[in-house]
Amino acid sequence: MAPCKAAREVIASVIFVTSFQGVAVRSLCTSNPHEHPEHGRLVYKGNLAKAVLGVRFFSYSTSIFNLFMMPYIMLKTGIGFESLFIQAAFYGLIGFFTFVTPVTLHVLTKGYVIRLYYKDEMDTYTAITYNAILAEKATVFHQKDVKIPDITKMFTTFYAKTKSMLVNPTLFPNPQDYNHLMGYDKSFYFNLEEEKETEERK
Q1: Phi and psi at residue 126, in whole multiples of 5°?
Q2: How confident is the model over 38-96, as pLDDT tens digits?
Q3: What backbone torsions phi and psi does residue 176 show, to the nearest 5 degrees?
Q4: Which residues make Cβ contacts (< 8 Å) with residue 143, sequence separation at least 6?
Q5: For the whole model, what pTM was predicted?
Q6: What pairing do the DSSP bridges indicate for beta strands 35-36 and 40-45?
Q7: Residues forming a β-bridge with 142
């Protein structure tokens, strides 16, 4: 009898461990990997984030290289002793690639949204972008802060308060998230369309 009792206890313990592991696996599988504890639900992820980071990093690298190489080039080529016109042309060319290009790239890409989170209970968004030193920057705004530009702009989809933001509407997994972000789900837009149709009929 004792061996049978011991066997039953072993089988029961195996069943218990197996069922516990199954519950643990199911709980891990059902947890949402797109939830952020602070920012909320991930509703958008830009597909050009690595490209933007790479281009800007390359631009910064070449600018630093130019700054270090400029004294050496001037010493070896003797440009510092040439005419003022040649010096101005040389400094202008080096200055353009050293300062103007990184600043231009920053201005054009500073509003590119890498990730966009949404908090349903507060109706707020958190947009993750790159700042001037290529670190991630979080911008929190309410849906009512979203303003759509009157004229279509190449690097601006909407304004969050006064900051321009660039997103790709086709990259939203749920189109309703984009519609809510832009305010297209408000009754105002439906009433406006109805008024336009009425005017056209008249």
Answers
A1: -125, 110
A2: 889 999 999 999 999 999 999 888 888 877 877 777 677 665 556 777 777 777 777 77
A3: -65, -30
A4: 123, 124, 125, 180, 181, 183
A5: 0.68
A6: antiparallel
A7: 124
